[in-house]
Amino acid sequence: MKMGIGVQRAAEALHERDGTAVAVCSPVASRLDKAAFDSHVAGLKLNLYGRTIARESFAVAKMLHYRYAGTAKVMIAQEPAFKALFEIPEKEWTKWEKLRADNKAAIDAAMAYHKSFFGPSKNARKGCFENLRKVWAPYIAKIKAADLQAARMALTREINSILSTEMMLCSAADGQSLFANLISREFGYSFSVSGPRMGIYYAMIESIVGTIADRENFPMRPKQNMGHVGVNFNVALSYARDKDSFGSEGEAVIEKLTPSGDDVKITFIKIKMMVDELSCTETNKIRYINASGIVEYQQDCRPIGRKEVTLQEEAIIIPAWSAGGLKKGNLASFYINGPQRRGFPAVVWADKEKKSIVNYLGVELK
Asked: Looking at the domain 248-270+312-364, which fold is it?
């Protein structure tokens, strides 16, 4: 019944009144092949009732496709600007067919892990990190970004989005929950386009927004849900129950990298700066009462001069595989657990001017 259920869902999606929802489904509906469908159903172990439901679902999907295709023609006749909008789905679908063909090995690896992760065996989800990272990292290494937001957008688009989602799930299942959380955090800064339907959806939104900017009374408005990996992140979190799952951030200029086995210790430069020197006296005004019932009072502080202080970010330890491209003088932003000071580079710039990214999520950018 899998084919029948899939077609029924397509029919339900096509039944949406929103024009973008109709258009998103149109490339699928236009490719429904009756002969191929009948051949598939014939090979299933269905009784008469099951075959009837499957064929009925197929017929409903085709009927709705023709209905909405006709509606689109009427809309174009009334408003020519709809023509370019309704041409987007087929163009995007064709683009994704090429992406799929050009990146078959990587996508196959990602989908194979996806099947394992959501399969019946928890053990099958483990032991994936190194192999999947070797598939994922070369794609991240190709990111060309002038700034951090551009890198985040590249992470959440097309093949990168597919691979990074599976990398997040794998990390969570394979004892790398801190890294899983880091990937998820990066996804939160931009919407994710990880397949043709989402590609169509956001391309149409962009087109509608552009049209409205020129013609305020254009009779369609975008409906957009900005978010990250949703259900996949929630599933990943189910593995991330230890206290090291969520990290803290830090940023400093690298002074020295010291390799040690599978790790690299990073120490940071000392910074000297002038600060106000204060003289404080306690008042009788309550500032805070802590959980133990201890009362803390406000202080009255006044500057009495200036003094020089030396600040230095505490050293961190990262996996050797994540240290590519790092060297003295880089400005590094990292994501670590608190107690052990172990973690990963989030983004590393060539210098403190932040004009060139050399490492993103532990991958050296080429």
From this structure: OB fold (Dihydrolipoamide Acetyltransferase, E2P) (2.40.50)
Average pLDDT across each block of 10 residues of the chain; the chain has 366 residues. List them in order.
Answer: 41 46 78 92 91 92 84 84 88 94 96 92 90 97 93 94 94 91 89 86 86 82 52 55 62 94 94 89 90 89 90 92 95 88 93 92 95
User: Domain locations in the chain?
Assistant: 2-78, 103-195+226-237, 248-270+312-364
Lookup: tokens for 285: 């005004």
281 burial level (CB within 10 Å; 0-12, 13-18, 19+):
exposed
Distance between CA atoms of residues 173 and 161, nearest Å: 19
Q: What are the beta bridge partners of residue 331?
A: 253, 349
What phi-psi label fits residue 305: left (phi over 0), alpha (psi between -120 and 50 degrees) or beta? left
Q: What is the rounded CA–CA span in Å between residue 164 and residue 151?
A: 13
Q: What is the dihedral of CA 260, 266, 272, 277, to 10 degrees?
A: -100
Distant-in-sequence, close-in-space partners of 172: CB < 8 Å, separation ≥ 6: 180, 235, 236, 237, 238, 239, 240
Cα atoms in the Cβ-side hemisphere of radius 13 Å centred on 249: 10
Cα dihedral value 281, 283, 289, 293, nearest 10: 90
**What is the reported pLDDT for 6?**
42
Q: How far apart are CA 366 and CA 349, in angstroms?
A: 13
pTM for the full model? 0.78
Q: How many residues does the chain have?
A: 366
Judged on CB neighbours under 10 Å (0-12, 13-18, 19+), 208 is buried
